[in-house]
Amino acid sequence: MYAIIVGCGKIGSRLAQLLSSDKDNVVVLDRDLTKFEEIDKSFDGLTIEGDGTDQDALKKAGIDKADVFIATTEDDNTNLMACQIAKQVFNVSRVISRVNDSKREPLFKELKIDAIVCPTTIAATHLRNAVIYPNLTTILTLNGGNIDISEIRIQGSASGKALKDLNLPKESTIAAIIREKQTLIPSGDTILQEGDVVVVVSLATISDEVGNILSR
Known about the structure:
By secondary structure, the protein is α/β, with parallel strands linked by helices.
């Protein structure tokens, strides 16, 4: 995979390291040369000084062969414009953007950005869940925060019940159960045990209801 990352702050630099460690081809673009100092020395991709909204800089980064384009700067206007150029001018097949102000997410959705990540919303949601549901950990948020993938530790009335008897909302599903270091793919007849950790995929709007059923 050939990936271009615009912005080499804490998020962009860490993402570059992760993708590089997966043996992907990674190019990081930033206007500030000093930002490249954020990247670990083990990074074996390319770093290019340039503006992510400058078509010449993007061509230099190899955008014509990019499989994925990720904008991670702290400026939403820059991210929006960079993604628009990547998607509409260079026809990059997958475009992903960081959004710093959650109120601006609709603008990115209008451009049909493939994935939108708002660190503020994700962090606030995770912290809130940690307060209200100590046994629930949101491990991934998709579709602009509309879908949650969570780990929930079973306790209370759910223990000893079969999945089919839990009356979980139809907008949720238990994808896997982790039991004493074993991973189980459940059926409706699977009996939950105290201490099981279940992996749940659900709409974010019903996460509270699912948490109440499984951990209280």
